[in-house]
Amino acid sequence: MDVSSVGRFVAARLHAAAAPLILEYELTHLCNLACHYCDRHTRQADELSREEIFRILDEFFVLGMRAIGLDGGEPLTHPQFSEIVDWLVERDVIVHLNTNGLLVPRKLEHVRKVKQLKVSLDGPPRRNDAMRGRGAFERALKGALAAREASVAVELRCVVGVHNWDGIDELLDLVETLDAGLKVMFQPARESLFAGNARDSSRWAPGQARMAAAFDRVEARKRAGSPVANRWGSLAHFRHFPGDLELPCAAGWIKATMDPGGRLYHCGMLKRDPEAPSARTLGAKAAFAALPRHGCGQCWCGRAVEGNLAWGGRLIQLGRPLRARGRGVGPANGAVNRARTHRSSALPPTRSR
């Protein structure tokens, strides 16, 4: 982080002046999958034009943007994806990319330029494809491994739901067997990606007890050295899902989310609003200045939880607890050694590297 960015961060942390050091940009809501628990599948009618995209990105860069997360929908379906990545990398902006992985092999020339690739994968084929569609597992894994072969840092994202809450061991066993330098970030399946957007979640929500059991199991595997990307703070936090649990919040102070039409939100988990401050009409500076700056009790994205704990100075909560905090029930809550001795039949053969 350069000196000016440090200064902006300190001013924001003291609540003296906000600065958009981090932008989450949803390039499009169009997606080439239709995961049951996701409600971003269809392209918005008012997506930014090519000229508007680069004007607004330049305005954010002037305001201090030094890191960006490219999201969707599926961002690799956007016609300007490659050009956007080139523009950002030329200015030394750190780029993270969230993807379902299917198009990674076709877009590898530009995917290899990002700092980190985050690929959605909920378990072996039977579990993953139950929510994401037939063949999604094979193609997502192919994309993740292609990125690793190109020396890109890859993090798998597992959404814990009714389809896989008792299959934590299967996914971690698979990742260990691949021996490809992958880790898994676990987070709960929410009612909607957008807070306040009521949906019938009975097809994917496992219930609070099962969710707690799943995260007990994740913690047990992390203690045993399995490739779990979550830090301890998010694992403890997710056991309370879906109950309100207040956190410090950096939303609106150092980061913002922009939807495909250029509207800004202080938090990416908010319901999309056609009346939200628009960088398209107001410009980035005025739109960012108009954002609210407050937290809530419904933060369920792994990296957001951990970032907010760090923002609030709660570093001890990110560290390893002295004792296990397990209180879950059911198949997900078992002895660590079970995972070491019982390998799923769904595992592919070990890859040599």
C-alpha Rg, in Å? 20 Å
Overall shape: it is globular
Instruction: Report the β-strand fraction as a percent range.
Output: 5-15%
CATH topology: TIM Barrel
Which strand order do you get reading across the main beta sheet?
6-5-4-3-2-1-7-8
Please report the total strand number as a whole number. Answer: 8
Mean pLDDT, rounded to whole units? 90
Helical/strand content category: alpha/beta
Low-confidence stretches: 328-353
User: Quick one: CATH class?
Assistant: Alpha Beta
**DSSP helix count?**
14
Order of helices and strands: HEHEHEHEHHEHEHHEEHHHHH
Q: What is the CATH architecture descriptor?
A: Alpha-Beta Barrel
Q: What is the helical fraction, as a range of percent?
A: 25-40%
What's the N-to-C terminus distance? 34 Å
CATH superfamily placement: Aldolase class I
Largest sheet: 8 strands, mixed
Q: How many individual domains?
A: 1
Summarize this structure briefly.
The chain is an alpha/beta fold and 353 residues long.
Explain this structure.
The chain is α/β, with parallel strands linked by helices. It has a single domain, classed as TIM Barrel. The protein is built from 14 helices and eight strands. The protein has an eight-stranded mixed beta sheet. Strand 7 and strand 8 form a beta hairpin. The longest helix has 16 residues. The radius of gyration is 20 Å and the shape is globular. The C terminus is likely disordered.
Main traits of this protein?
alpha/beta; 35% helix; 353 residues; 12% strand
Protein topology:
Elements (H helix, E strand, L loop, with lengths): L2 H11 L8 E5 L23 H14 L3 E5 L9 H10 L3 E6 L8 H4 L4 E5 L4 H8 L3 H14 L3 E8 L7 H11 L4 E6 L19 H16 L8 H7 L16 E4 L5 E2 L13 H4 L1 H6 L12 H10 L3 H4 L17 H6 L12
Parallel strand pairs: 1-2, 1-7, 2-3, 3-4, 4-5, 5-6
Antiparallel strand pairs: 7-8
